[in-house]
Specification:
Blueprint: H1 11-19, H2 21-31, E1 35-38, H3 45-50, E2 54-57, H4 81-93, E3 100-105, H5 109-121, E4 126-131, H6 138-158, H7 167-189, H8 195-205, H9 210-217, E5 240-244, E6 261-265, H10 283-291, H11 305-316, E7 321-327, H12 331-346, E8 350-356, H13 363-377
Parallel strand pairs: 1-2, 1-3, 3-4, 5-6, 5-7, 7-8
Helix pairs in contact: 1-8, 6-10, 7-8, 7-9
The chain binds iron/sulfur cluster.
Length: 378
């Protein structure tokens, strides 16, 4: 495979890179700066880029040689389905192409346990535990600033991070990446692009070095290539929004029952590009901007940001129904269902709860339930 991709990249090419994710990692390891893996969306990717490191998101994409259930040696069978998949895949080659891994502790019990397991199982790989505060007050700001400074010194000392630290430049690049994704999200909302293609682009954007992504996609979608966009006629289908946590399998959306999907409220979807950070070299200002981001299911939503943001999205995209997507055995997803359901009911918004795992083994059932939900909304 080769990353000499063109600006008129087609959906089939995005699919190709994602289905060859592990090969892509190996190739990127030769081409890019040292790679640092991460799992959750509250990771200071700009800080890593500023040290000439390449932050790469770790997906639960099935490794061709993964042995299902290999994880059982290390974590409980009731750990979330997503982390089980991550361990099954990692046990094939130990994520050998990554220089190190950043865990976000203080998120959920499963991730916290795996952080300890990881250090034992993949002992050659350096790990760092970053704790992103649950609140966003002044004390949280001071705490996070200290955490960020420590991650910088750890990366410079152990992960080949450069001491030539250019934060403003990195923030600018990531702001541009988020702007591009917002532009593409608007096409989905207008029914000019299928959500599945957008999901592929989103995931691809967390794999490629940010400079490369912005360089290739700054003019996306190209105007001179008709088959680069999948257009759907959405006049007669209800407009759906999908809400949830760390979902990362684009294949879930590759079924016609999602053709009315016009927006998402997922960790690695809207919540990963719905913000612009202050372009600054000051760590304090960077921290302040980071703390303003919408909260995650794993955090305490002290200011009801999460519900407000969902409500704004529903209005903005003129949504008819919301699909609440939960990952099997994910406690944070299950906990937040309660306030979200209450919110939707109090606003008279129809919803459907779908539970699945990264391997979407119950796809037949999901299709039937989605089709029935859409019929009800018509
Ligand atoms: S938030 Fe849920 S899906 Fe993510 S690691 Fe924790 S339990 Fe698993």
């Amino acid at each position: 495979m080769s990353f000499n991709i063109r600006s008129n990249i087609l959906s089939s090419s995005l699919e190709y890179y994602l289905t060859h994710y592990y090969e892509a990692l190996t190739e990127l390891q030769q081409l890019s700066n040292p790679m640092v893996g991460y799992f959750t969306n509250k990771i200071p990717v700009e800080l890593l880029d500023a040290m000439k490191l390449h932050p790469v998101r770790i997906f639960a994409f099935k490794h061709p040689q993964a042995q299902q259930g290999a994880y059982e040696r290390y974590i409980q069978t009731f750990a979330c389905s997503w982390l089980r998949g991550i361990l099954d895949n990692g046990l094939v080659n130990g994520y050998k192409d990554l220089e190190g891994i950043i865990f976000s502790t203080g998120t959920c019990d499963s991730l916290q346990n795996v952080s300890d397991v990881w250090q034992k199982v993949f002992a050659a790989q350096l790990t760092y535990n970053l704790t992103f505060p649950i609140k966003s007050n002044k004390a949280a700001g001071t705490y996070l600033e200290n955490e960020f400074k420590q991650i910088v010194s750890f990366a410079q000392k152990h992960l080949k991070g450069s001491s030539d630290f250019k934060l403003t430049e990195s923030i600018r690049k990531y702001n541009l990446k988020r702007k591009i994704l917002q532009k593409v999200a608007n096409l989905v909302s207008k029914g000019q692009l299928l959500y599945v293609t957008f999901a592929q682009l989103l995931y691809f954007s967390d794999l490629l070095p940010v400079d490369k992504f912005t360089q290739i996609f700054k003019d996306f979608p190209p105007t001179n290539n008709d088959d680069s966009i999948s257009v759907t006629n959405q006049d007669e289908i209800p407009r759906l929004l999908v809400s949830g946590g760390m979902w990362d399998n684009w294949e879930l959306f590759d079924i016609p029952e999602w053709n009315g999907l016009v927006a998402d409220d997922l960790s690695f979807g809207h919540r990963n590009f719905n913000y612009t950070l202050a372009e600054t070299d000051s760590m304090k200002s960077y921290v302040e901007s980071q703390l303003k981001r919408t909260s995650e299911p794993t955090a305490y939503d002290e200011k009801n940001q999460r519900l407000e943001s969902l409500g704004e999205q529903i209005k903005e995209h003129d949504v008819n129904g919301v699909v609440l997507l939960t990952m099997k055995f994910c406690d944070p997803d299950a906990f937040e269902l309660v306030p979200i359901r209450k919110y939707l009911e109090s606003h008279d918004i129809s919803y459907l709860n779908l539970e699945t795992s990264p391997d979407i083994s119950n796809v037949g059932q999901l299709r039937t339930r989605l089709a029935a939900f859409s019929e009800l909304l018509l």
